[in-house]
Amino acid sequence: MTDSRPVVTRFAPSPTGYLHIGGARTALFNWLYARGRKGKFLLRIEDTDRARSTAEATEAILQGLRWLGLDWDGDPVSQFARRERHAEVAREMLARGAAYKCFSSPEEIEAFREEARAEGRSTLFLSPWRDADPASLPDAPHAIRLKAPRDGETVVHDAVQGDVTFQNAQLDDMVLLRSDGTPTYMHAVVVDDHDMGVTHVIRGDDHLTNAARQIQIYQAMGWQVPVFAHIPLIHGPDGKKLSKRHGAVGLHEYAAMGYPAAAMRNYLARLGWSHGDDELFDDAQAREWFDLGGIGKAPARLDFKKLEHVSGHHIAQMPDDLLIGELAAYLEATGTEPLTARQTDWLRPALPAIKSKAKTLPALLEQGRFALVQRPVEIEDKAAAALDSVSRGILGELTAAVQHASWDRNELEAAAKQIGESHGLGLGKVAAPLRAALAGRSSTPSVFDMMLALGRDETLARLQDQAG
C-alpha cells in the first residue's frame, strides 16, 4: 500500500445538489493528506449525469469548499468534458483484447436476469458475445465491456479496511462504453484518476466494491493502481445513516448556524480519525498529524455537543482580525446585513472579553450586541425594571464621576464602587442600571468591559440618556 510518487489526491463530487457534510469530510481528508506531504489536491466535477448535474450545484460545491478553507491545485476538471478520452481508452482496451463488443440489448439482459431469478441462479449477466469470433460480429450498435477475469480473485489492498478480497466469479464484465458511445462512471473514474496522476484515492466505503472492479481496468491497461483508502460513512447520533431527520446534513447549513470554518475543519478531521487523545488542534497540527492509519473502520457519529465544544474553543483562541472575518462570512451566509465600520470599531475591543463565552458566531454577536446598537438604546422590559428614580440618579452621579477619568478599568470600577457605597449599595446593584443604560439588557458582559469597548464619549452619552 505504498506509492513512491509525489502524493496527489482528489475530491470528485457529483454536482447534483449541495455539498454534504460527508463529502466535506472526504474533501478535508484528501486535502490534509496532500498538504501534509507537500503534494497536490485536485478537484474533479463528476458531471456525466447530464440530467441531474447543474451549474448551480457545481458553484454551491465550490463555495462550500472555499468557505471550509480548502484550496485546490489547478482548475476543476469536468469529467463530461473528457468523454472522448474515456472512449479512446475503451477502444484501446478493445484492441488489446482486454474488452469486447457486446450486442445484447437491454431487453435481452433483463430477460436473462428474470429467468435466472426464477430458476434461483445468479443474475450476474454473462454476455454471449464475450468469446465471439471478431470476424462474425454484426455491424450494429454495441457496448464495449471489460473482459474481466472469471477465475481467481481481486484483492483491494485498502489503507483503512485492510485487504478485502472479491471472487472474480462474482464480478461481471462491466460496461465501459455504452451503445450510444458514452462512457460509464466506473470507467471514467479510472481513466481520470490515471491521467490526473492520482496516487491516493480517499473516499467513502460505499465505493469499496467499485474499487475491485476498477482495479481490473488498471490491470488491463497496465497502469499503476493507486493506494485506496475507503473511509466509513458518517452516522447520526442514533447510529443510523445520516439523513435530514438528524438535522443539518449540508455544509452550508453549518455555516448558517454560525460554526466557524476553523472549528468545522477541526471537528470534521476528528470525525472518524484520531491522533492519540488530541481533540482540539489547529490546521498546522492537523496537516502534520493526519495519516490514513489513524482512520477508524467503524462509522463516525455526529455529535452536536462536541461540535459546540470545538467551536467555542476556536472562537476563544482565534485572533480578533480572523474572528471579524468569520463574522462577516457568517452574516453573508445568512443573508444578513454586514457590520458597519462603526460597529466593527466598537466590537473589536470587546472581543477579548466576550469571545470566551460564545460557542457559535450568533452567540458571539449576542454577547457583543451592546457594541452593535445605536443610541438611543432600546431598553427591554426586564432591564427597564432596574431604572427606577434612585438608579437614574446614581447614573447621573457616575456620569459626573467618570467624566474626566483616565478610562482605566480599575479607575472606572473604583468610581462605581464608591458611588454605590455612598448609597449603601454593593457593586452589583450599581451594575444593573449600568447594564440597562449601556446595552438595554439585564444580561450582558461586564459593564466595565462594555465601557472600555464603547469608549468615553459613547459611554457618557448612553449614561446621560438614562440619568436622572
Automatic annotation (TrEMBL):
Span(s) of short sequence motif 'KMSKS' region: 241-245
HAMAP family tied to this protein: Glu_tRNA_synth_type1
Organism: Paracoccus halophilus
EC number: 6.1.1.17
Gene3D superfamilies for the chain: 1.10.10.350, HUPs
Motif ('HIGH' region): 13-23
Subunit structure: Monomer.
Pfam families associated with the record: Anticodon_2, tRNA-synt_1c
Name the record gives this protein: Glutamate--tRNA ligase
PROSITE patterns (alphabetical): AA_TRNA_LIGASE_I
Annotated compartments: Cytoplasm
Cross-referenced CDD domains: GluRS_core
One annotated Gene Ontology cellular component of this protein: cytosol
Signal peptide residues on this chain, from the entry's feature table: none
Superkingdom of the source species: Bacteria
Residues holding ATP: 244
Keywords: Aminoacyl-tRNA synthetase, ATP-binding, Cytoplasm, Ligase, Nucleotide-binding, Protein biosynthesis
